Amino acid sequence: MPPADQRTGSIYDLGYRRYDGLRLGRQHAVLSLYVYTLRGAFGIGRRASSKIIPIIITVIAFLPALIQLGVAAIVSDEVDIIRPENYFGFVQVPVALFCAAIAPEITGRDMRQRTLSLYFSRALERRDYALAKLAAFATALMVLTLAPQALLLVGNGLASKDLADYVGDNWKDMPRTIISGVGIAAAMGAVALAIAAQTSRRAYATIAVVAWFLVTWPISGILVAEVGGAGRAAALLSPFDFVYGATLWVFDVEPDQDSVQDLAEIPLWGYGAAVAAYAAAGTALVIRRFGRIAA
Amino acid sequence: MALIETQQLTKRYGETVLALNGLDLVVEPGITGLVGANGAGKSTLIKILLGLLEPTSGEATVLGYEIAREGPVLRQYVGYMPEHDCLPGDVSATEFVAHMAQINGLPRAAARERTAETLRHVGLFEERYREMRGYSTGMKQRVKLAQALVHDPRVLFLDEPTNGLDPAGRDEMLDLVRRTGKEFGISIIMASHLLGEIERVCEYLVVIDGGQLLQQGPLGDFTAAMGVLAVEVEGEAAVLAGNLRERGLRVEVEGRMVLVALEGDERAFDLIRDSCADLGFGLVRLERRRQNLEDLFRPTEKGTAHAAS
After folding, report:
1. Coil, helix or strand for B67?
2. Searching chain A, which residue's CA lies closest to the CA of residue B96?
3. Do residues B87 and B59 lie in contact, with contact meaning Cβ atoms separated by under 8 Å?
């Protein structure tokens, strides 16, 4: 038998080597952070316990769509189809829950574990980091605001007698649904992230986000309904109220009698402007926060 | 081209703290030890070069890139291992290091491949698929080094890489750092306050103190010039000390040991031998003492104080 060739050992040495391949730079860095954060928002690639809360909240957001489709499948024609603007009224609650539970994780993790210095010493700028986090979180919220509606549209379309007719009747709602869903995700997401980013402590961040949703809500209700006058502007304070007002504006629907939007007598486009303003302010605050934080 | 060049680099924290005070520095490629006491400005300098901190004034280039304007491009070629913990507990080393590689611009497939290679290089095997929260300090330090190396940087900044390691872990980490620098030609800036570690790894030394450059040069220049000999004899230490002082050496008694300042020449060895012979003392031990860094910073004043007290 010939002696073993000693050189064969070297092919198993898979240790450190130099890298001469592609370096895709800043854009790739931002995109990678976006994907990683989005996955993390739903606990993908993390331990099972990190998946429980986002999955439960997501299921809640889908429930009305699933129920309506299920009922329609059983009793067929008799069912009233859920209107997109009404669905947005419902989905605000899971969106708020998601903000309170997940926004502190999106920003707080890297602060708490001091991973920020690893990011900021790599091929991206602080602003890029903030924007990637914001975009990922807003996208996660869009899964809640838009995906159930997409399911509903497809499901109802397939269940209808004539798909072409159904699409013809409903196509006008599609851009409106998308605008509304993106607006809700952007405004609530940006502000929730701006609040959560102020602290690395998870509990404080969650409480602060919850407070934004729950403290402003009765204030808006009381000031609009009981005080009136200048107090009616408070409808623009509560995220639930101004976001719903904006949805009514996008869908060109009159507010229900005695609802906050009805009593406040603010032109509906004002709520649309509020959504844009909140989204912009939240974004600016998140960028500012990560521009200054020590890494 | 110089690896690092700084001009009048200044960093002020608030009104009172001056971390870097008009630092002018040129560092050539190679393995360089950045030495200084706690608070000397080592970490501040590294963080400014990495773009983690903005200098109050002054300029710097790394690899020829201006840090103020070409940060993201430069940082594709730079690795950083911070002093502090920086690893998330709820992901595996593989997932985390691959993510960090992508943040540095590596395509996904290359990032995964490089992650496997780099983790093997730092000596992390099956554990790499587990969540990092269960890792020992030694394993965490290895992952910290791996994330700094995964994108094959041209220069590596290590801030106290042996922090928290036991002696064996310390040896392994230093060996890893030296091999990384020597075998793969990656320039390394290693900050430490332990001269012993610097000596084992580095070729050049940069000493900063109070935010200013105190000294720099090849390592040999430093160790030859300064040192202390510890002498143990069978006999009265004080008598030997007196005898050596008469022969013109700077001497201090520390318990049973006589400490002799070495001042750049080897004359002391002969004088100690002669002294012992004249006094009839048996020479038990003669060893070169590691000086603590404060002595290195101010060889004259401190050294004198040390020897004379």
Report:
1. coil
2. A36
3. no
- Which segments of chain B belong to CATH 3.40.50.300? 4-210
Minimal Cα–Cα distance from B3 to chain A, Å? 17
Short-list A186, A221, A180, CA closest to A89 = A180
User: Which pair of tokens denotes residue A119?
Assistant: 């990011």
All CATH 3.30.70.270 domain ranges in chain B, comma separated: 223-308
pTM of the model: 0.85
Angle CA A182–A185–A187, to nearest 5: 105
Q: At what angle do helices A126-159 and A163-170 cross, to 10 degrees?
A: 130
Amino acid at B46: I
From A106, A96, A109, A113, select the one nearest A130 (Cα to Cα).
A106
Contact B151 A22 (CB under 8 A): no
Q: Which residue has the higher pLDDT, B224 or A111?
A: A111
Fold of B4-210: Rossmann fold (3.40.50)
Q: What is the mean pLDDT of residues A232-250?
A: 94
Closest alpha carbon to B30 in B216, B211, B293? B216
ipTM of the complex: 0.88
Q: Which residue has the tokens 């649904």?
A: A177
Chain B contact present for A292, CB below 8 A: no
In the numeric block, which tokens belong to residue B21? 């005070």
For residue B196, report the phi and psi dihedrals to the nearest 5 degrees.
Answer: -55, -40
pLDDT at B223: 63
Record: contact A26-B72, CB cut-off 8 A: yes
C-alpha to C-alpha distance for A31 and A136, rounded to whole angstroms: 10
Q: Do B52 and A19 touch (CB under 8 A)?
A: no
Q: How many residues does chain A have?
A: 295
Residue B142: closest CA among B161, B114, B168, B117: B161
Q: Which residue of B has its CA nearest to A126?
A: B52
Interchain proximity B103–A32, CB inside 8 Å: yes
Other beta carbons within 10 angstroms of residue A58's beta carbon come to: 17
Kindly tell me the burial class for residue B110, based on how many C-beta atoms sit within 10 Å of its own C-beta (0-12, 13-18, 19 or more). Answer: buried
Distance CA B209, CA B118 (A): 35
List, in sequence order, every residue forming a beta bridge with A243; answer none if it has no partner. Answer: none
**Residue pointed to by tokens 């990683």:** A36
Kindly report each contact of residues B248-257 with a partner whose C-beta sits within 8 Å and lies 24 or more positions away, as own/partner. B250/B303, B250/B304, B250/B307, B250/B308, B251/B307, B252/B306, B252/B307, B252/B308, B252/B309, B254/B230, B256/B232, B257/B230, B257/B231, B257/B232
Residuewise pLDDT in 10s, chain B (309 residues) = 899 999 999 999 988 889 999 999 999 999 999 988 888 899 999 999 999 999 999 999 999 999 999 999 999 999 999 999 999 999 999 999 999 999 999 999 999 999 999 999 999 988 999 999 999 999 999 999 999 999 999 999 999 999 989 999 999 999 999 999 998 889 999 998 887 788 889 999 998 988 999 888 888 777 655 667 888 888 888 898 888 888 888 888 878 888 887 776 678 888 888 888 988 898 888 877 655 544 555 444 433 333 333
CATH classification code of B223-308:
3.30.70.270
Cβ distance A29 to B78 less than 8 Å, yes or no, reads: no
Q: Is residue B57 within 8 Å of residue B8, measured between CB atoms?
A: yes
* CA dihedral of residues A5, A6, A7, A8 (deg, nearest 10): 70
pLDDT digits (tens, 9 = 90+) for A70-110: 888 887 666 678 899 999 999 999 999 999 999 999 999 99
